[in-house]
Write a structure and sequence with these properties.
The chain is α+β, with helices and mostly antiparallel strands. It has 2 domains: about 160 residues, Aminotransferase class 4, branched-chain amino acid transferase, N-terminal domain (D-amino Acid Aminotransferase, Chain A, domain 1), CATH 3.30.470.10; about 170 residues, D-amino Acid Aminotransferase, subunit A, domain 2 (D-amino Acid Aminotransferase, Chain A, domain 2), CATH 3.20.10.10. The chain has 7 helices and 19 strands. Strands 1, 2, 3, 4, 5, 6, 7, 8, 9 and 19 form a 10-stranded mixed β-sheet that branches. A 6-stranded mixed beta barrel has the order 10-11-12-13-16-17, surrounded by 4 helices. A hairpin with a 5-residue loop joins strand 6 and strand 7. Helix 2 packs across helix 3. It is globular.
Length: about 400
């Protein structure tokens, strides 16, 4: 399949270090794929009844790795439970990382993936960060392509619908002790989904959080590992009890802006020099290098209509800009939702109201937020021919 090699536009990212125990062992090979199809296919769920991440397709991908021999042959097999020993290191030391990507069905019925090479590269950086094994991303994409053809009926039709894919790697060594796992499992599951939020494309309210910290420079915020997410659950619950849908994570003495919940943050404003600027925090090790983030930066730069920057911003600056009516739009961005418009940010007891679309009082998103969302979907569903949209042959 003609998958693209990873090219991270606008991102200055170091290559992951090779795993310390890397040896001349077997790599992951798609041509060794074994397929066992289910004898009991499940009933499909109607699009209108889909809840994000609650329904799963008939099959899954698995591949085992051992330090002394490398990767076993990958398998596509019926979706089922995974059996692990209670002492498996994943349960005790969060030896786990994952990706989020989607498969789309265009109007001609072709299966499409959106920049899958970037997901593979990022997952290899995540595995390297927590001392799990590397794999050949092109080979895994070939396996995923075969899996998608087998479970094609689970890719829902219609704009806004897709099969959400969750590649995951876990440490499976049966041992209590803080050390790199000498065994691992790679698996991929698929979940048919519609819009991420049940209410559809609508603006959310945020609580700016400085009591808790999501990530920090040179930490693990730039890796998609499970240990980054559980600590955010309590702050999310606390924000929800106060009527806010998400946290706006702040960091440091100046309340530096970082991310929105599990999404990257974008601010469209008139900056201090009076320029219209789309800004997002830089990749300093605390920010996840999102595929959607990189795509938005590339699109906006190609439009050439306003300044596009990756730079530090803090909450007092944003608060003052809101008060001075210099903020035009704010949104979060990620694979699951594409973009999420923001209408309110609570900071130190003050609700700061973010404009949506001044020309339409009923609008749930500003014109640039909506344009980004529509353009991304046009590419993902093949309505605009673009090298980011990769057809599974």
């Amino acid at each position: 399949m003609p998958f693209l090699r990873a090219r991270f536009l606008g991102q200055r990212l170091a290559q992951p270090a090779k795993r310390w125990n890397s040896t001349a062992t077997a790599g992951l090979k798609a041509d060794l794929l074994r397929v066992t199809k289910t004898e009991n296919p499940k009933a499909l769920v109607a699009n209108k009844d889909l809840i994000f991440g609650r329904t799963f397709s008939d099959h899954m991908i698995t591949a085992e790795w051992a330090e002394n021999k490398g990767w076993d042959a990958p398998e596509v097999r019926p979706y089922d439970k995974i059996c692990l020993d209670p002492s498996a290191v994943v349960f005790h030391y969060a030896s786990e990382c994952f990706e989020g990507m989607k498969a789309y069905k265009d109007k001609q019925g072709k299966i499409r993936l959106f920049r899958p090479d970037m997901n593979m590269a990022r997952m290899n950086r995540s595995t390297a960060r927590i001392a799990l094994p590397q794999f050949d991303g092109d080979e895994l994409l070939k396996v995923i392509g075969e899996y998608l053809k087998i479970d094609k009926r689970w890719i829902p039709e219609g704009r806004g619908y897709s099969l959400y894919l969750r590649p995951t790697m876990i440490g499976t060594q049966e041992s209590l002790g803080v050390a790199a796992s000498n065994r691992a499992m790679l698996f991929v599951i698929g979940s048919p989904v519609g819009p991420y939020y049940p209410t559809g494309f609508s603006a959310v309210s945020l609580k700016a959080t400085n009591e808790y910290v999501r990530a920090w420079p040179r930490g693990t915020g730039d890796s998609k590992i499970g240990g980054n997410y559980a600590p955010g659950l309590l702050p999310q619950l606390l924000a929800s009890k106060q009527g806010y849908q998400q946290n706006l994570w702040l960091f440091g003495e100046n309340d530096q802006l970082t991310e929105v919940g599990a999404m990257n943050l974008f601010v469209l404003w008139k900056n201090e020099q009076g320029e219209t600027e789309l800004a997002t925090p830089p990749l300093d090790g605390s920010i996840l290098p999102g595929v959607t983030r990189d795509s938005i930066l590339s699109l906006a730069r190609s439009w050439g209509e306003f300044k596009v920057t990756e730079r530090y911003m803090n909450m007092p600056q944003l608060r003052d800009a809101v008060r001075e009516k210099r903020v035009l739009e704010v949104f979060g961005a990620g694979t699951a939702c594409i973009v999420t418009p923001v209408k309110t940010i609570e900071y130190n007891g003050e609700d700061l109201h973010i404009p949506l679309d001044p020309s339409d009082p009923t609008a749930q998103a500003g014109p640039i937020t909506k344009r980004v969302n529509d353009t991304m979907m046009d590419i993902q569903y093949g309505e605009i021919e673009h090298p980011w949209s990769v057809v599974v042959n």
